[in-house]
Design brief:
The complex is a heterodimer of chains A (about 375) and B (about 325). By secondary structure, chain A is of the alpha/beta class. In chain A, about 50% of the residues lie in helices and about 10% in strands. Chain A is built from 14 helices and eight strands. Chain A has helices spanning about 10-15, 40-65, 80-90, 105-110, 115-120, 145-160, 180-190, 220-225, 235-255, 285-290, 295-305, 310-330, 340-345, 350-365, and strands spanning about 20, 95-100, 165-170, 195-200, 205, 205-210, 230-235, 260-265. A six-stranded parallel β-sheet of chain A has the order 1-7-8-4-3-2, with helices on both faces. In chain A, helix 2 (about 40-65) crosses helix 3 (about 80-90), helix 3 (about 80-90) runs parallel beside helix 4 and helix 5 crosses helix 12. Chain B is of the alpha/beta class and about 325 residues long. In chain B, about 35% of the residues lie in helices and about 20% in strands. Chain B has eleven helices and 14 strands. A five-stranded mixed β-sheet of chain B has the order 9-11-10-13-14, sandwiched between helices. In chain B, strands 5-7-6-12 form a four-stranded mixed β-sheet. The model of chain B has no long low-confidence stretch (mean pLDDT about 95). The chains are: A alpha/beta (about 375), B alpha/beta (about 325).
Chain lengths: ~375, ~325
């Protein structure tokens, strides 16, 4: 009999010890962990909340535009504002973002012209024509691919001696992909400055987080790669900012990557292409997460400091709506796409098949 | 000028480009201290340092993603996939991501990546090492697939591939690594991408092939000449996209074609060549197009390779059938 000689229950329990959830600002808008308060200036606090209001407004307008048939593919972001906006707010303009399809707010805040974000949504090539100096890739669809690519960007930054970081975003479902493990493992081995962000909103379309893995947290997957893993309240902008800014310091100091799990929720459906969350979520669950809303607690905090008012927020919303309208009007002006351009963009030096087909399509388009 | 094997020519090409351009990086599994399992990167780490020539963890998809990220930061990655049989692990990086990047981003970004991989039958590797998966890669627009058939071309094509601003899948036939030597010039020279090479001139029939089958086709042509059949041999060199101009010019001259590939009938590039010839030159043909290829089974067990792989006798028989039609 060898039963019981090795205590596997104890081993798995030890391995699965909880990663504590880092929180700074509670739902009442009070600082509950002063030692972790990033101590942003008043100006920075206003800027951060303003950007969160922008992201919420963009989500509401994008949803409306989609329903009017004026936008294409759209993955709602409401509920993710702390995870998305505060993480971008902690970046340097030269940091590189590898987003997935839900991370349009970070791209726009990092400098992507809003009209391009709308063109991407509509399926227009100009949406992906990024200015040379803009440090990002278009949203990744093949989930996990951004993780292995982030390791490459980060190794490149290290080899160039640039004090900048590659940020890769995925959701909770993405952590089940092979590329997730390969990406964090490569970056860890090379001590490359990458920050891997998991926006854990509890559902990969309809599949709950508990059905993705036996692991208790997603952050603990960092252990196997030999890198730090952190769980943070993804509805708490100050906690997210603190964790991101600290991770950035750690990474550019040459210590390698960090894996960050933000606990958040998407109020809307997976995308506006037919998903109905009522099939897999309860109203009680929605209510619970709405009570943790990232904007509400920041509003309370800033209002108590005398930095915020409803009137100010309404002014901002009007301003953002005007910006969004201008951007969608600009997107409407984009020229019709031509197959000849696609052919020209496929290779640097055109091989014979491309030359032949280009001739054919240029003739067709001239008529 | 020196007599070199194909693998020496490949090492030489990487050394030339590592010296020419600081952005060239060579990496993969065992490529550093060990110099690669075939010794293709022998001595490169010692000469150029661990920053330029380095080992990676064992994960092909990771190697693909690493290459894409490094290319976006301005490097010219030359990753090695240890055996082409392992390429399926990195197919998203190749077909889904790097081949599409220039197109996807409206010509604002480029992927100057050369992925090297040993492939092909005849050296009795264990299962799942040697597979002729080249046809898979040839179906992705945006990437070139290059297969040298001799040491001279191997060096010149690899230098061209590394200098190309587009991704290249560069396939090294394992049986050719050390089976013969060629005069290979020292220093730098290039062999152009996208150009097939007429390696033997003939009036009666055109044999279109690539990789290790160029040697078999040449052997067959020598044999056929004794029977007064003069075969022209075309070495594709770049198997995707195809140089149809060279092929069609030959077909118009000879009026007969035999396409030869080591891959299975359903799997290689031969069907594409046959399709293009049929569309462009069918009225020049005096006989149906012949096709020599391996049977439609998975790549064979090591001891069965000889029975499975196409050879010069198969080519001779197919040419005679075509000529005597």
């Amino acid at each position: 009999m060898i039963n019981g000689k090795i205590d596997f229950a104890k081993i798995v329990d030890t391995e699965s010890q909880e990663f504590p959830e880092i929180k700074v600002l509670n739902e009442a808008g009070e600082i509950i962990a002063p030692e972790l308060d990033p101590q942003l200036t008043d100006e920075q606090l206003v800027a951060l909340l303003s950007k969160m209001v922008f992201a919420r407004t963009l989500d509401q307008r994008s949803t409306a535009l989609n329903r009017q048939g004026r936008l294409g593919f759209y993955a709602p972001t409401a509920g993710h504002e702390a995870s998305q906006v505060a993480s971008e707010y902690a970046m340097d303009p030269g940091d590189f973002i590898l987003p997935r399809y839900r991370d349009v707010p970070e791209l726009v805040l990092h400098g992507l012209p809003l009209a391009k974000a709308f063109l991407w949504s509509r399926g227009h090539q100009m949406g992906n024509e990024y200015p040379d100096e803009f440090r990002a890739l278009p949203p990744q669809i093949i989930i996990g691919a951004q993780y292995v690519q982030a390791a490459g960007i980060a190794l490149g930054l290290k080899k160039r001696g640039r004090k900048q970081v590659a940020y890769a975003y995925t959701g909770d479902g993405g952590t089940s992909q092979g590329d997730f493990y390969e990406g964090i493992n490569f970056a860890g081995h090379f001590k490359a400055p990458a920050i891997f962000v998991i926006e854990n909103n509890g559902f990969a379309i309809s599949v709950p987080r508990a059905e993705q893995t036996a692991a208790k947290t997603l952050a603990q997957k960092a252990v196997a790669a030999g890198i730090p893993g952190v769980v943070v309240d993804g509805m708490d902008a100050l906690a997210v900012y603190q964790v991101m800014a600290s991770a950035r310091e750690w990474a550019i100091a040459g210590n390698g990557p960090v894996l960050i799990e933000t606990l958040t929720y998407r109020y809307g459906p997976h995308t506006l292409s037919g998903d109905d969350p009522k099939r897999y979520r309860t109203p009680e669950m929605d209510q619970l997460w709405l009570s943790r809303d990232p904007l509400i607690r920041m509003r309370k905090y800033l209002t108590a400091k005398g930095l915020w008012s409803e009137e100010k927020e309404n002014q901002l919303i009007d301003q953002y709506k005007a910006e969004i309208k201008a951007a969608i009007d600009e997107a409407d002006q984009a020229p019709k796409q031509q197959v000849s351009d696609f052919l020209k963009n496929t290779y640097d030096v055109q091989p014979q098949n491309i030359q032949e087909q280009l001739q054919k399509f240029e003739q067709r388009e001239a008529n | 000028m020196a007599q070199k094997t194909m693998i020496q020519a490949i090492t030489d090409a990487m050394a030339v480009e590592l010296a020419n351009d600081d952005n060239v990086l060579v990496f993969g599994e065992d490529v550093g201290k060990n110099g690669g399992v075939f010794r293709a990167t022998e001595g490169l780490q010692a000469k150029f340092g661990e920053d330029r020539v380095f080992d990676t963890p064992l994960a092909e998809s990771g190697i693909g993603g690493l290459s894409i990220g490094l290319a976006l930061e301005g490097f010219r990655p030359v990753p090695e996939i240890q055996f082409f049989g392992f390429i399926l692990e990195t197919m998203d990086s190749i077909g889904g991501q790097m081949a599409r990047m220039r197109y996807r981003m409206g010509n604002t970004r480029q992927m100057p990546i050369t992925i090297r991989a040993p492939f092909g039958g005849g050296v009795h590797t264990p299962e799942m090492h040697s597979d002729n998966f080249e046809g898979l890669i040839t179906s992705f627009p945006g990437i070139r697939v290059v297969v040298p058939s001799n040491p001279y071309d191997a060096k010149g094509l690899l230098i061209s591939a590394i200098r190309s601003n587009d991704p290249v899948m560069y396939l090294e036939h394992m049986k050719l690594y050390r089976s013969f030597r060629d005069e290979v010039p020292d220093g730098e020279y290039t062999v152009p991408l996208d150009q097939a090479n007429v390696t033997r001139s003939g009036r009666d029939v055109t044999i279109v092939t690539y990789g290790a089958m160029v040697r078999e086709a040449t052997k067959a042509a020598d044999e056929l000449a004794k029977a007064n059949i003069e075969a022209e041999v075309i070495d594709l060199r770049t198997i995707a996209p195809l140089d149809m101009k060279t092929i069609i010019a030959s077909v118009e001259k000879t009026g007969r074609v035999v396409v030869v590939q080591e891959a299975q009938r359903q799997a290689g590039v031969g069907n594409q060549v046959i399709s293009e010839i049929s569309q462009r030159a069918i009225l020049n043909l005096q006989a149906p197009i012949g096709f020599v290829a391996a049977p439609d089974t998975p790549f064979p067990f090591g001891q069965a390779e000889t029975a499975w792989l196409p050879n010069a006798n198969d080519i001779i028989a197919e040419v005679k059938k075509t000529v005597n039609f």
